[in-house]
């Protein structure tokens, strides 16, 4: 997925370089989030809680005509994102807004993005104190309830716009339930760790389309690792070669 060098971090097999990674460093989740976004040239996508800009850069590298706004509250990661945008030559299509999501969502006009992708802080402050490092703490510990975060994201979508969320598997019911209530539906994709012990999903992707009502559905899971620990072919295509993640309908056991 990534490689460290004197220049910082490289994603998508070097197609994206990130000399600045202040805050929480991009991970596999970052690349998968961008790959899961169903965008087309000419669309404008918001990356809510962008950190140093990894997801937005990966999306811009995969789809040459897409525009991305990276929204980040903390000054150091926001500046890192600006540096990374310049390093990749994406200044004409990717921009950074430094600000709080709740305030941003209240700024008219609402419902202005074709898509939103987000990797929200995933630790509930009631059960975790998080990291003592201020930037890592800000990136991982909720400063607003998850429902408020996702409601703000949905509030800036155009009608019919798509949201994609990556989150912990143990909170999938919460994420999917919020999207069902606020958007009308939800589709879940498990990200299976795989490997020698056939580890279960630790992360999930959940997507919804604003105003599209319907029952909850499941997409075919993505298995990340073979028994020997190497990437599966599907994961390698996404993480190193910039392939899109395909949302293929999948019937869970016991369902029709």
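Sequence proposed for the structure above (256 residues):
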């Amino acid at each position: 997925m990534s490689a460290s060098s004197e220049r910082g971090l490289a994603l998508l097999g070097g197609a994206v370089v990130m000399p600045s990674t202040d805050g929480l460093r991009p991970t596999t989740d970052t690349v998968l989030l961008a790959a899961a976004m169903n965008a087309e040239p000419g669309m404008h996508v918001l990356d809510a809680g962008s950190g140093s800009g990894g997801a937005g850069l990966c999306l811009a590298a995969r789809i040459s005509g897409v525009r991305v706004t990276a929204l980040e509250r903390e000054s150091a990661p926001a500046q890192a994102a600006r540096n990374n945008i310049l390093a990749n030559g994406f200044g004409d299509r990717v921009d950074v807004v430094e600000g709080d999501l709740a305030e941003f969502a209240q700024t008219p006009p609402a419902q202005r993005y074709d898509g939103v992708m987000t990797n929200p802080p995933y630790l509930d402050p009631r059960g975790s104190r998080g990291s003592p490092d201020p930037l890592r703490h800000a990136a991982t510990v909720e400063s607003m309830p998850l429902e408020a975060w996702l409601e703000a994201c949905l509030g800036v979508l155009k009608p019919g716009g798509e949201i994609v969320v990556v989150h912990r598997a143990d909170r999938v019911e919460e994420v999917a339930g919020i999207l069902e209530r606020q958007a009308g539906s939800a589709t879940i994709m498990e990200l299976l760790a795989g490997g020698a012990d056939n580890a279960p999903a630790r992360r999930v992707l959940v997507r919804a389309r604003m105003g599209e009502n319907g029952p909850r559905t499941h997409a075919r899971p993505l298995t990340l690792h073979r028994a020997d620990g190497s990437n599966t072919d599907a994961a390698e295509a996404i993480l190193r070669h910039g392939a899109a993640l395909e949302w293929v309908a999948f019937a869970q056991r016991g369902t029709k």
